[in-house]
Structures are given as C-alpha cells and as structure tokens.
Design a protein that fits this description.
Pfam families: adh_short (PF00106). InterPro entries: NAD(P)-bd_dom_sf (IPR036291), SDR_fam (IPR002347), TIC32 (IPR055280). This is Short-chain dehydrogenase TIC 32, chloroplastic. There is one protein chain. The chain has 439 residues and is an alpha/beta fold. The chain has a domain at 143-438: Rossmann fold. Helix content is 31%, strand content 23%. It is built from ten helices and 16 strands. α6 packs across α10 (422-437). The chain is globular, with a radius of gyration of 23 Å. It starts with 9 loop residues before the first strand and ends with a helix. Bound molecules: NADP nicotinamide-adenine-dinucleotide phosphate (NAP).
Length: 439
C-alpha cells in the first residue's frame, strides 16, 4: 500500500474496510488502520491495525505487509495478512495473568486492494465473507442464479468467446436465457458454443459477429440484430482489452477507450429502442450490465482526458485501461439517470468481476500472464466465480429496480469519487455522442 510521502502517519477511515466476518460473528464498533508512510521513492509499506468491538470483546490484529508496484495517490497493492482473532470474555483472564483474551483463530489470508482518492482504501479479501446479498467473492455464477428461471429472456453477451463472457453465456443459457454471443472471432466462439451445447443440449445460443473496435461493425451488428426480430431483455457489455501498448481502433481512437467504452456506448444506443419495446411488450424489466473493473481507480488524474484521448506521448497502458473502465461506470450511471427521467423500465449498472487470472485479459503481458496462471490462480477467482457478479446483476430478483449502482462480489460496492461524478458522466456522454455521430 502506498500513502503520500508526508512524514506523518496516516489513519485511514474505517468505513471502507470490510472485516472478515468469517473470522468472528461479533459486530465491529470501529476499526483503526494505521498506515506508516512510505519513503518518497519506496514502494513497499507495512500496515498494521486492530479492530475493537463494543466493550472490547473482540480484538483482531492484522499485521499486514502490502506491496505496490506503483507509487502514487491511486495505487494497487497486494499483500499477505496474518489475522489473530481474540475474544476477551473475562473467563480466561486469570489463566492469562489478568490480561484476558482467548485466541479463537489465527489465519493467513491474501488481500488485494487500491489506495484511492484521499488515501481511502478500497480492498477485498480474495476469499471473502458473505455480504448482504448472501453471496461472497467465492460464490459462482451457478450459485447466484440457482433457482432463477430465465426462460423467455433474450440476452446479448459481448466478448462471449473467452473468459468471463463464456461463463456468463453458459450460465445464462443454463437458466433458460436465449443468448446471442456477440464476438469478433467466429472460429473460437463456434467451439465455445459447441462445448456449451454438449453440456446443455437445450441451450439457446446464436453467434453474431461484432468488432467493438470498428463503429461500422457495431452498426452492422445492430442492424442485423434488429432485422432478426429478436427481442432484447439483457445487454451484457462484457468484452474488453487491458493494457495493450499504444494502438488505435479502426476509427482512430486509443484502443481501450475505443473498444471498452465507445464500442459499447454505440452498441447500447443503437439497441435502446429494441430494449425499450421489449420491456414494454414483455412487461419485464430490461437490464444493461457494464463489466467495469476496480482498475477504474487507476484512471488518469482527471478521470477521462477528453483533450488527450489519443495522446501517445503521455499514454500509460494502465491509466488508459482505468480511464476506459471508469467510462464503463459513468456510462451506466448516465443511462440509469436518463431511464429514470424517461420512466423507462430498464436498469443500467456496472460491476467489478474480481481478479480472475485465468482469462485471456493479460494477453499483452506474457510474463505476468504466465505467473498469474502458475501462481495467482490458486488464490484468486476462477471463471465460475468471475462471472458471478455479472449473472447476479443480470438475473437476480434482488437487483430488480436497482439502477446506477456499482457491484462487486455480487453485492453493492462503492466506486471511486470520479465514478460518481454526475457532471463527468454527462460530459462523457456528450463527448461519446460527438465521436460516434461522426462515424
Ligand atoms: N480477468 C480479470 O481479472 C478482470 C478484472 C476486472 C475486469 N475485467 C473485465 O472483464 C471483462 C472480460 O474480460 P476477461 O477477463 O474475460 O478477458 P478475456 O478472456 O480476454 O475476454 C475478453 C473478451 O473480449 C473480447 N474482445 C476484445 N476486443 C474486442 C473487440 N474489439 N470486439 C469484440 N470483442 C472483443 C475478446 O475477444 P477475442 O477472444 O476475439 O479477443 C474476449 O472474448 C473485460 O471487460 C475486463 O476488463 C476482468
């Protein structure tokens, strides 16, 4: 973890820390996390803290060492946590020389997190506890949709040819949803379709070609979809590219902004009338789900660099990825606002699927990809867990009527302050309209 380099020790807010309830059922009254400042050049920082419940009945100590590859105000960190869980129930006080306390458990865990604006920490236990929805980071897409009947619904899943998109497609189809796999690679997706049909011969699947990096392709897809006469209840904007070197789309936009945001922005706009008429005729709520990322916290300082979208000299692969993922959240928020104003029965939400090292997302970083596949897969999410939040937001009745929210681990979550900036969302909308109208 990295703080600013001021010499003072930072005391970080308790509200953003989710204590691991699996390690104790007591309600925590407050939490103090003390972050020792890093040096101006260093990148590692030890953090320790303790949580105290009402009447000091429970104490959790978690010496923590976080390592961050970056030094800045919005940096990722990953670390090992040792958690010593003590209940002071008075009964053992004498036996322990009057100090009280009895160790309940000692556990080693892994944490992944981000230091965001104002030194607030957003972080997650890689193997987490259940949230208010009843699901956790460990829940799979099948688990969060157990017992839900999606028969009669039609969905488009972009990027269905691999990773989270494939698993989302499989599980939605398992629940009876007719899924249109919107993909740029027909060969791979043909194999994916075959594999799903082999497991579930009743799956209703279609494959349609879509290259989000080409507005002409997006328009062709939307036009063919409308001509097919299919309804559209669920639009899952899942496809994405992460941290490639500086490249441009076919429409001369930086690849990540152009693919992850602009492609999906245009696709959504072109399909809105179909979604609206489906919602009206079927009397079923339509849902738009934007697969974003906690990486939205890496975005450039100003969030979206409207005047420097294609500026190669100041390009940073991770900040550009963050910018595009921030745009996914702002896009969903602005859609939600517009739907509410229009009284349309469609919701729009965004989400972080978790860290899933076994997808092809790291394809531009072969060394990290190799390491992730060798090591990280043992303590991070797999694809069934990675597709859970998408399937939860798309299908679960708990999410009915919920719009303009950000989810993680199949629960409501807090995005960065920039992601909640309504003016920025409006500015991005207008900017995106200008970019897409001209092509
Ligand atoms: N994996 C993670 O840890 C993680 C974490 C946070 C967020 N996410 C988000 O989750 C989403 C899915 O990623 P993933 O992890 O499943 O990665 P993935 O396995 O690489 O899947 C990405 C999908 O997007 C498709 N795609 C890329 N560019 C496209 C384009 N121009 N037109 C159409 N489709 C395109 C890919 O198609 P091809 O197979 O043809 O390339 C692929 O099917 C992404 O939006 C990503 O940002 C992932």
């Amino acid at each position: 973890m990295v703080t600013d380099s001021s010499p003072s020790t930072s005391v970080l807010s308790s509200s953003v820390w989710a204590p691991p309830s699996a390690w104790g059922g007591c309600r925590l009254r407050h939490l103090v996390v003390v972050a020792l400042p890093s040096t101006t050049t260093g990148s590692g920082i030890p953090v320790h803290g303790h949580m105290v419940t009402s009447a000091c009945r429970l104490v959790l100590w978690f010496p923590y060492v976080g390592l961050s590859p970056l030094h800045g105000s919005s940096s990722p960190f990953v670390g090992v946590v040792w958690c010593h869980h003590v209940v002071d129930d008075g009964r053992d006080a004498a036996a322990q020389g009057g100090r009280g306390g009895r160790a309940l458990s000692t556990k080693l865990g892994f944490k992944l997190g981000f230091v965001g604006e104002s030194n607030q920490i957003s972080e997650m236990w890689i193997f987490g506890r259940k949230g208010p929805s009843g699901f956790s980071a460990c829940s799979t897409a099948e688990e969060v949709t157990q017992g839900i009947d999606g028969t009669g619904l039609t969905a488009i899943v972009t990027g269905a040819s691999s990773g989270i998109g494939t698993e989302t497609t499989r599980v939605l189809a398992l629940r009876g949803v007719h899924v249109v796999m919107a993909v740029r690679n027909r060969d791979t997706s043909g194999k994916v379709k075959e594999a799903i049909l082999k497991e579930n011969p009743n799956a209703k699947l279609d494959v349609m070609e879509l290259d989000l990096g080409s507005m002409a392709s997006v328009r062709k897809f939307a036009s063919e979809y409308k001509s097919s006469g299919l309804p559209l209840n669920l639009l899952i904007n899942n496809a994405g590219v992460m941290a490639p070197p500086f490249m441009l789309t076919q429409d001369n936009l930086e690849l990540q902004f152009g693919t992850n945001h602009i492609g999906h922005f245009l696709l959504t706009n072109l399909l809105l009338e179909t979604m609206k008429s489906t919602a009206r005729e079927s009397q079923k709520e339509g849902r738009i789900v934007n697969v974003s990322s906690e990486g939205h916290r890496y975005a450039y300082r100003e969030g979206v660099r409207f005047d420097k979208i294609n500026d190669e000299s100041s390009f940073s692969p991770m900040s550009a990825y963050g910018q595009s993922k921030l745009a996914n959240i702002l896009h969903a928020n602005e859609l939600a606002k517009r739907f509410k104003e229009e009284g349309v029965e469609i919701t729009a939400n965004s989400l972080h699927p978790g860290a899933i090292p076994t997808t092809k997302l790291l394809r531009h970083h072969s060394i990290i990809d190799g390491l992730a596949n060798m090591v990280a897969k043992y303590f991070m999410k797999d694809c069934p867990q990675g597709a859970a939040t998408t399937c939860y937001v798309a299908l679960h009745p708990q999410v009915k009527g919920v719009s303009g929210e950000y989810f993680s681990d199949s629960n409501l979550a807090k995005p960065s302050a920039l992601a909640k900036d309504e003016e920025l969302a409006k500015k991005l909308w207008d900017f995106s309209v200008t970019l897409t109208d001209s092509k």
